[in-house]
Amino acid sequence: MSEPTLQEANSKKIAAGVLGILLGGLGIHKFVLGYSTEGLIMLLSTLFTCGVAAVVVGVIGLIEGIIYLTKSDEEFLQTYMLNKKGWF
């Protein structure tokens, strides 16, 4: 498998950032980045608490979405696609 390019990093950064801001409570932005475990944790915590945890998980998703969008493409590629940093 080849290493991701800056163009791939940019498209994933935008998709994950927007989804984190809009649907952060469901953890969909984690699935876009390939973080299945983290995405399932966010999704299931929202579902199993009947939405009570959605407030906390939504804030986490909002913060992560903003962080993703404010990083340069190079930083995003290095941090989230090559080093696989799962949280913040």
TrEMBL record:
What topology does it adopt in the membrane? Multi-pass membrane protein
At the top level, the lineage of the source is Bacteria
The TM2 domain, residue ranges: 11-56
Q: Which InterPro entries match?
A: TM2 (IPR007829)
Pfam families the record matches: TM2
Q: What is the lineage of its organism?
A: Bacteria, Bacillati, Cyanobacteriota, Cyanophyceae, Oscillatoriophycideae
TM annotation in the entry: 14-33, 39-63
Keywords in UniProt for this one?
A: Membrane, Transmembrane, Transmembrane helix
Species name:
Limnospira platensis NIES-46
The name this protein goes by in its record: TM2 domain-containing protein
Task: Name its cellular compartments.
Answer: Membrane
